[in-house]
Amino acid sequence: MINNTTLQIKFRQRLNKLASNDYDNIECWQIVESFNKAQIEWCRRQLHGNNMYKEGDEMSKRRIDDLQPLLVNLGLLTIQGDTFVESTNFPENYLEYKRVSAEAVTECCPAVAPDDGIAGGPQSRGRSMTVYLSEVANVDIIMRDPLKRPDFEWGETYCTVQDNTIRIYHRDFDILNPVLTYYRRPREIQIEGCVDPYTLVQSPADVICEFKDDIVELLIDEACAIIAGDINDANNYIRGSSQAEKNN
């Protein structure tokens, strides 16, 4: 893993003029801010497919390999509505939706007891359901459509995302064990002793980038382009932007 000392050296190497201290006054907080900004921009491009290869989320082995550290599961806590269950917990580090999985039970097909033998417990198993993501505008239309509405026999239902909640819809069955799979925001780096000018809080320890070293190299180029743009260094801006995208 590339540590933060090496990261700062690479920043200054790409922004300083040869044998010159013209740009040697780059503050550590500028490196942190630009690098964390570069992480978010890079992730959004890869997830959406806005890169030179037009490869989005899981469209190639490289995209899967690069983004898999950010893919996590969250068990949803829900409250019951008339035609849906609504989550009461939503991840603070949420970046992009991936999928929702859930199980369902009915009176004739109750939950199967887990190994501890307690039926209806938190780990009880129901029928696995395929949960499609739908637009909020089409909720009523789907619910009236006999081919698209939630159906226990077909093992299908749908969900929506609004106001930082997940709604999973049902008709003649109950939802069990819903799980949200999502891409989280990458961990922000910190440099020990660096004072954040926005919060005036000093970082107590180094927090290094969690991505692989080859991705960190791309993020350094992109972050350098951000700083170069801030200081009107056109050459380094063009170089950093092109290198970051060409090697993606």
Question: Overview of this structure, please?
Answer:
The protein is of the alpha+beta class and about 250 residues long. About 30% of the residues lie in helices and about 20% in strands. It has helices at about 5-15, 30-50, 60-65, 140-145, 215-230, 235-245; strands spanning about 70-75, 80, 85, 95-105, 125-135, 155-160, 165-170, 175-185. An eight-stranded mixed sheet has the order 1-8-4-5-6-7-3-2, with no helix packed on it. The radius of gyration is 24 Å and the shape is elongated. The two termini are about 20 Å apart. The relative contact order is 0.20.
Strand content: 15-25%
- Terminal CA distance reads 19 Å
Beta strands, count: 8
Overall spatial form: elongated
The H/E string reads HHHEEEEEHEEEHH
Content-based structural category: alpha+beta
How many DSSP helices?
6
Tell me the layout of helices and strands:
Layout: H1 4-15, H2 28-48, H3 61-67, E1 71-75, E2 78-80, E3 84-87, E4 94-105, E5 127-133, H4 139-144, E6 156-162, E7 165-169, E8 174-184, H5 213-230, H6 234-246
Parallel strand pairs: 5-6
Antiparallel strand pairs: 1-8, 2-3, 3-7, 4-5, 4-8, 6-7
